[in-house]
């Protein structure tokens, strides 16, 4: 996962490290104050030696910060998110103290880790949510076709079942030929009942029936698929609006593929504005070497990532935690 970005971030950390090391003035002994440095100069000076400590200055991290900027943008991290990471790293590094002779690696690693955690948000614990919520919990999945939405509905159902929740799936993509069969096959394979009408029917009616079914049979969670494409975009949004009105979902979950990078982030934002979104699932993280969508989407949309899809099997889904992505990117 995210191998390209991971390798590049390693190089950037080295660049920070050597930049900080290289600027150590060897002529000043530890323990001695550099007397001629006036306070106003202290902020700008590369390194101020005070009582055996080095203070990191703005200028010495300029080049590695530029390198970090290039790496993030090249790996599809959205521009505002890149800016936020740079600002956070700069804020954490400039003015920090370290002992003379001490390796700057830890300092750089800590700054990068904390800055990434800051933009990654908190994650979303679906089990905790479902356990603490009135039943049936109603979840509507949105997103464009081909990104892995149908498979993801089955994966989430499988995950919930494995953790003791009963689930019913509503086949709400009545528009696309083959969608009903496809979802029915997935549902059968993971042993979950699916509620469906015939192709071309009103998806809102399917969702209504599924919620009724869950209520009558004591089912904990309703997972509703929706169309990712319709006659045109306005119609699709109208249809999703109607589905929302009828189903009254507790959660609207937007699904997209991590491999789409910045396109996924732009689409996620568009869906969030037009239909509303409570959480995001990124599929195909196993095939994504850049990691840009995973790093950017929560900060851009202002909603947490719930899961990462990591393969084609039904168990290939990881509950998202910011620590997971940061550890993946920076190493443990
Ligand atoms: P939909 O059109 O959005 O419903 O997409 P599908 O659920 O049919 O998935 C499209 C393709 O993506 C299928 O071949 C899935 O097996 C594959 N897929 C879905 N999720 C993942 C994932 O997390 N990793 C990988 N490698 N493939 C996935």
Describe this protein's structure:
The protein has 332 residues and is of the alpha/beta class. Helix content is 48%, strand content 14%. It contains 13 helices and eleven strands. The protein has helices spanning 3-22, 39-42, 62-74, 79-93, 105-120, 126-131, 149-162, 179-189, 203-217, 233-247, 262-274, 292-301, 322-330, and strands at 47-50, 53-56, 97-99, 137-142, 167-170, 193-195, 221-224, 251-257, 279-283, 305-309, 317-319. An eight-stranded mixed sheet has the order 6-5-7-4-8-9-10-11, with helices on both faces. A three-stranded antiparallel sheet has the order 1-2-3, with no helix packed on it. A hairpin with a 2-residue loop joins β1 (47-50) and β2 (53-56). α5 (105-120) packs antiparallel against α13 (322-330) and α7 (149-162) packs parallel to α8. The longest helix has 20 residues, at 3-22. The radius of gyration is 25 Å and the shape is elongated. The protein starts with a helix and ends with a helix. Guanosine-5'-diphosphate binds at residues 145-151, 228, 283-284, 286-287, 309-312, 316.
Using the alpha-carbon principal axes, give the shape: elongated
- Based on helices, strands and strand pairing, what is the structural class? alpha/beta
Q: State the end-to-end distance.
A: 14 Å
The share of residues in helices is 40-55%
Topology as a string of helices (H) and strands (E) = HHEEHHEHHEHEHEHEHEHEHEEH
Query: What is the average per-residue confidence, as pLDDT, rounded to a whole number?
Result: 87
Measured by DSSP, the beta-strand proportion falls in 5-15%
Rg of Cα set:
25 Å
Question: Could you tell me the number of beta strands?
Answer: 11
For the largest beta-sheet, the strand count, sense and barrel status come to:
8 strands, mixed
Listed once per kind, the bound small molecules are:
guanosine-5'-diphosphate
Placed side by side, the strands forming the largest sheet appear as 6-5-7-4-8-9-10-11
Uncertain stretches of 5 or more adjacent residues: 25-49
Number of helices: 13
């Amino acid at each position: 996962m995210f191998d390209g970005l991971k390798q590049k971030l390693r190089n950037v950390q080295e660049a920070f490290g050597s930049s900080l090391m290289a600027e150590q003035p060897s002529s000043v002994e530890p323990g001695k104050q550099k007397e001629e440095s006036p306070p106003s100069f202290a902020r700008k000076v590369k390194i101020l030696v005070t009582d055996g400590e080095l203070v990191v200055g703005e200028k010495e991290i300029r080049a590695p910060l530029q390198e970090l900027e290039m790496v993030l943008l090249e790996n599809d991290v959205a521009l505002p998110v890149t800016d936020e990471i740079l600002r956070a790293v700069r804020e954490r590094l400039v003015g920090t103290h370290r002992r003379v002779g001490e390796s700057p690696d830890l300092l750089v690693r800590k700054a990068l880790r904390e800055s990434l955690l800051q933009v990654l948000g908190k994650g979303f614990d679906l089990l905790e949510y479902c356990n603490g919520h009135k039943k049936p919990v109603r979840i509507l999945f949105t997103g464009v076709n081909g990104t892995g939405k149908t498979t993801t509905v089955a994966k989430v159902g499988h995950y919930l079942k494995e953790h003791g929740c009963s689930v019913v799936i509503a086949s709400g993509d009545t528009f696309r030929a083959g969608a009903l069969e496809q979802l029915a096959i997935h549902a059968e394979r993971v042993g979950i009942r699916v509620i469906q009408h015939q192709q071309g029917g009103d998806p809102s009616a399917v969702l209504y029936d599924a919620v009724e079914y869950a209520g009558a049979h004591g089912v904990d969670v309703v997972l509703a698929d929706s169309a990712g494409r319709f006659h045109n975009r306005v119609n699709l949004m109208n249809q999703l609006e109607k589905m929302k009105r009828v189903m009254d979902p507790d959660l609207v979950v937007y699904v997209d593929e991590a491999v789409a990078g910045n396109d996924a982030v732009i689409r996620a934002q568009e869906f969030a504005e037009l239909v509303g979104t409570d959480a995001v699932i990124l599929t195909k993280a196993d095939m994504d070497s850049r990691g840009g969508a995973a790093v950017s989407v929560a900060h851009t949309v202002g909603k947490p990532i719930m899961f990462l899809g990591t393969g084609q099997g039904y168990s290939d889904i990881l509950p998202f935690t910011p620590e997971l992505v940061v550890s993946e990117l920076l190493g443990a």
